[in-house]
Amino acid sequence: MNVITETPTVKTVRLGPAADAAALPFTFLPGQFLNVTFSIGGARMNRSYSISSSPTQRAYLDLTVKREPRGAVSRHIADLLKVGDELEAGGPVGRFTFTGTEANSIVLISGGVGITPMMSISRYLSEQSWPNDIFFIYACRSPADFIFAKEIAELERHNPWLHVTVVMEHPDGTDWQGLTGRLNTDVLSQAVPHIASRRIHMCGPPVMMEAVRSLLQELKVPAEQIKTEDFGTAAPPPGEGSNRFAAAATGPLVSFSKSSKSAKIHLDQTLLELSEELNIGIEFSCRVGTCGICKVQLTAGEVDMAIDDALDADDKVKGIVLACQAKPKGPVTVEA
């Protein structure tokens, strides 16, 4: 393992194969992510990080991580990981992928560290000499926060099909000569001709993604052409956000068979949220239905799931559900 500093708050962890292997023991698609697990302060913590390297690079895999002041795992990665350390990882997983066969052009819109899956896709398509337009649009806070600036410039120099647009929100006091401010309909329509007819991938902070989604609606981009990648946040510490479920639960009874605990659930609550109230200990990472870490066996009853990307056909046949998405239709029993 190696650690590369990208910006003052972002580092790339470069993972290699075991000492006796010449290549990684698995393959992945551009745009997928890994689930990594650490033991921190006696607790087992899972997080999901997009892969920023190209799948053609079989000798290594890059995870690019932003250090969050309140993020236990990201702080551990940024402050404590060192060359030679081993990581426990699962995957790769995720359907936010693009290999060049899905459409005849691609628009990649990202903000902040959401640039990571876009780099994997852009690197891969460039290495494959994919002869179609790649529109790479990046919203960045300041020049000091521009992740992969040199790599993007190098890719653009060597790939005539790659069209890069960077918008810098706070360039004051720097020598930035490009676009400034935030993304808007003028920037998007000028950067991407006929944008309403193209496939779009989007990844970044939730506020940025909601704003861009509204811009794309204004530009008449059909919703089915927009693919997004986002990761949820960890459960709030006790005392934070407690008002959400302050009233008495009036939903169906949920029984956790292994823990011998049961309780009624709130009507808008997920199995994962109830399990956290009862200290069941179901593991999780993304909280948005894509990583699969919170898979549990449903042994009785039925649930609704808005997103089930992490489940394959065999999981569904066996009655496996995602605790972060599952909301009971009636009384249920969960093997947890």
Automatic annotation (TrEMBL):
CDD domains reported for this sequence: fer2, FNR_iron_sulfur_binding_3
Pfam families assigned to the protein according to its UniProt record, in alphabetical order: FAD_binding_6, Fer2, NAD_binding_1
Domain FAD-binding FR-type: 1-99
Keyword Iron applies: yes
InterPro entries linked: 2Fe-2S_ferredoxin-like_sf (IPR036010), 2Fe-2S_ferredoxin-type (IPR001041), 2Fe2S_fd_BS (IPR006058), Beta-grasp_dom_sf (IPR012675), Cbr1-like_FAD-bd_dom (IPR008333), FAD-bd_FR_type (IPR017927), Flavoprot_Pyr_Nucl_cyt_Rdtase (IPR001709), FNR_nucleotide-bd (IPR039261)
Keywords: 2Fe-2S, FAD, Flavoprotein, Iron, Iron-sulfur, Metal-binding, Oxidoreductase
Family annotation (PROSITE patterns): 2FE2S_FER_1, 2FE2S_FER_2, FAD_FR
The keyword Nucleus is annotated on this UniProt entry: no
Necessary cofactors: FAD; [2Fe-2S] cluster
Record-annotated 2Fe-2S ferredoxin-type domain positions: 252-336
Database matches in PANTHER family: NADH OXIDOREDUCTASE HCR
Similarity section: In the N-terminal section; belongs to the FAD-binding oxidoreductase type 6 family.
Protein name: 2Fe-2S iron-sulfur cluster binding domain-containing protein
